[in-house]
Amino acid sequence: MSKRLSILIMLLFILLNFDLSSSEMINGAGATFPYPLYSSWAAEYYKATGIKINYQSIGSGGGIRQITERTIDFGASDMALKPEELEKSKLLQFPAVIGGVVPIVNIPGIPSDSLILDGTTLCEIFLGEIKRWDDPKIKALNPTINLPSKTIAVIYRSDGSGTTAIFTHYLSSVCKKWADSVGYGTSVKWRTGLGAKGNEGVANYVKRTPNSIGYVEFAYAKQNRLSVAKLKNLAGQIVAPDFESFAEAASSAILDPKNHFYAWMTNAPGKRAWPITGATYILLAKERNEINKSVIKFFDWAFKYGDETAKKLDYVPLPKNLKEKIRAYWKTHIK
């Protein structure tokens, strides 16, 4: 056998045995809120299928921009887009999972997870009106804690952020001053504080800055072992952020496929409801039918096999009936 023929046979063998699925990659980008979960799902999906999910945690604003510009296969945003916005950009939208945004604090000398705040105090801290930790309004909520007379260092998201959208939507719903002067969205004009990029950036800044306060998705607080503030909710109850309080807040949301599942879950009713709860969404370009089929295969797999991973990371999996509504939505819009 000639050397050339041997090489040809070897090349043919490689081609016949090459697993095409292993070279397939789906590219997504956006919200940092679900990044711990999406990265875990992606690793498990690769093991199960050989298909790679490349998800970049760049913030919801970046995810919306990149899918609008068609530079990625799917975008991710913690702020649901209104139906008219989706129509303008020719996008589809569905929720993937539910989680909570939490105030994180670094106050030397006070026990972890012991601070209590309400909507008014949180609003006035981020407006720069409450400037010290021993302010009478904070002391009234925490009579047994020896709060220091230290200046509060406010940390906020500097990038376009769905976590910011959820947090500022909550502040707008509980504080007229905030609604009138700042409002809500992925980016707002902050009145005080220092900006940090991503949930990761806010968590790191708070971790290394004494007497600071910020806000992050709950998984980042747990991963960084940061102290979390309890909140007084709409029912007047003091609640801690956890799987159950996120699930109770989500239970009252109306997620309608006719409106592309547009909904807010902030300041929800319920004795145990965590007041800063939200869904995180996936955005698809309407005309990219074949790409969309690959993307929804991943999320369908996650809906079937990813719930336990979500729970371990303190996200709330979507209920079965909502998953079925999403599958029907896919069938309607992705042929």
Q: Give the CATH superfamily of the largest domain.
A: Periplasmic binding protein-like II
* Average pLDDT figure: 92
The level-1 CATH class of the largest domain: Alpha Beta
By DSSP (H or I, 4+ residues per run), the number of helices equals 14
Q: What's the structural domain tally?
A: 2
Which strand-content bin applies to the residues? 15-25%
Write the layout of secondary structure elements.
Blueprint: H1 3-17, E1 25-30, H2 35-49, E2 52-57, H3 60-68, E3 74-77, H4 83-89, E4 91-106, E5 116-117, H5 119-127, H6 136-141, E6 153-157, H7 162-174, H8 176-181, E7 194-196, H9 198-208, E8 212-217, H10 218-223, E9 227-228, E10 230-232, E11 238-239, H11 243-251, E12 277-285, H12 289-305, H13 307-312, H14 320-333
Parallel strand pairs: 1-2, 1-3, 5-10, 6-7, 6-8
Antiparallel strand pairs: 3-12, 4-8, 4-9, 4-12, 10-11
Report on this model:
This protein is α/β, with parallel strands linked by helices and 335 residues long. Helices cover 43% and strands 19% of the residues. It has 14 helices and twelve strands. Strands 1, 2, 3, 4, 6, 7, 8, 9 and 12 form a nine-stranded mixed beta sheet that branches. The protein has a three-stranded mixed beta sheet with strand order 5-10-11.
